[in-house]
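Duplicate of #3305? Posting structure anyway:
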């Protein structure tokens, strides 16, 4: 459990295990604890790095923030953390908006990424009905402003994710400060952010798009399919839905490991 100084923030991170470095980038709620159950399945063969993204929980902001460039800053934070911990390129797994950050990382800083597994990025601009989903997320934000966190989160999960995810999401410990930060700076900003396909294309061979089997037909699954199509990469289906790494941990880990086994030698 350590901190890394970055411009405008102090990043909290943890390392577990030994072996090739694997960095896990979280989406909502932005904290390392999202991967707590997955870590023991990966750490026997990897040095697993988890961290709170800036502005969430233990990664405190330190000075003014450029929220117009927040995604770029998130990617730069990941780059700084990787360079701090490894002299070699690493495996990166990012889920949900963490996958959005991971894709930005590869586009901007390809030298630090050996293999990238973007798991269900909410890349709405890749979808034919992406504008509709952007409107849905804006309506969820409006609901948050009118009625508060819980009604908005309920609407968000019920409209966006498979029913198998809903119960766990509803039971998850709530941190109102993290939720408010996510509503203000991520819900409406990250899903419609453009994916730089031109920058990713030269590195497409490093990308393993992945999605949960129970997410079929949901926007993040379909965005992953579109990402794979644009990069000429097959989508790997893993157990569970959008949060299969929480709801179906043992089988999720068992099926995840072979996707990057060739880089762990």
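Output from current build:
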């Amino acid at each position: 459990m350590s901190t890394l100084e970055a411009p405008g923030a102090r990043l909290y991170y943890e390392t577990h295990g030994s072996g090739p470095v694997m960095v896990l980038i979280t989406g909502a709620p932005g904290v390392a604890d999202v991967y707590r159950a997955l870590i023991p399945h990966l750490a026997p063969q990897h040095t697993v790095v988890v961290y709170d993204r800036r502005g969430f929980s233990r990664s405190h902001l330190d000075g003014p923030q450029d929220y117009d460039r927040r995604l770029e800053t998130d990617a730069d934070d990941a780059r700084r953390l990787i360079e701090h911990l490894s002299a070699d390129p690493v495996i990166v797994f990012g889920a949900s908006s963490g996958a959005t950050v991971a894709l930005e990382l590869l586009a901007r800083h390809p030298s630090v990424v050996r293999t990238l597994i973007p798991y269900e990025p909410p890349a709405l601009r890749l979808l034919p009905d992406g504008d509709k989903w952007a409107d849905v997320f804006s309506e969820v934000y409006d609901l948050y402003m009118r009625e508060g966190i819980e009604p908005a989160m309920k609407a968000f999960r019920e409209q966006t994710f498979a029913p198998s995810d809903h119960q766990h999401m509803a039971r998850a410990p709530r941190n109102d400060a993290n939720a408010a930060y996510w509503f203000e700076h991520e819900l409406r900003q990250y899903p419609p952010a453009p994916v730089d396909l031109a920058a990713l294309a030269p590195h497409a061979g490093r990308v393993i798009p992945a999605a949960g089997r129970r997410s079929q037909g949901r926007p993040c699954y379909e965005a992953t399919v579109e990402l794979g199509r644009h990069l000429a990469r097959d989508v790997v289906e893993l157990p569970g839905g959008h949060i299969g790494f929480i709801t179906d941990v043992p089988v999720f880990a068992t099926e995840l490991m072979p996707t990057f086994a060739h880089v762990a030698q």
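Confirmed duplicate; merging threads. The radius of gyration is 17 Å. The first strand starts at residue 2 and ends at 6.
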